[in-house]
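Researcher: Next entry in the queue.
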Amino acid sequence: MTSASDKPVKLAVGDPAPSFDLATAGGGRVTLEDLRGAPALLWFYPAANTSLCTRQAVDLRDHHEMFTDAGYRVVGISPDEVPELDRFVAEQELPYTLAADPTHEVMAAYGAWGQKNMYGRIVEGTIRSTFAIDADGILTFVKYRVGTPKHIALLQEKLGL
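Model: Structure for this entry, 161 residues:
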């Protein structure tokens, strides 16, 4: 018998964003409270310096001004440790915050950690996901299983950028 806590989390537009406090590249920290007062874009990705994650990170870098012009703060979250995030930021010249969630607690709270099909095998890992949060901490956009090549176009359409 499984309990309700065993079920994967699936957040929806209108839900409050789960609270978090994570270490960031560069030695700082980021919390949900830090993001209050302006919209934020959280994107969860499996691993720094891998091909699809690098493509997604670079696409967000190349369109970063579009998000900042609309007031968004961009935060990428992965299970990587801070030293790996520091390398990713340096090598890809990423202008936004990257946060480390090696325990997967924040990913699980957002439903971005769980079972997924990887090359025909069911594995546990990061579910590539993106969330927009308004100035009051309410989710205004939720997308699980983000397709990397269409990520920016999807955000432009759904966020009106």
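Model: The two ends are 45 Å apart (CA to CA).
Researcher: Noted, moving on.
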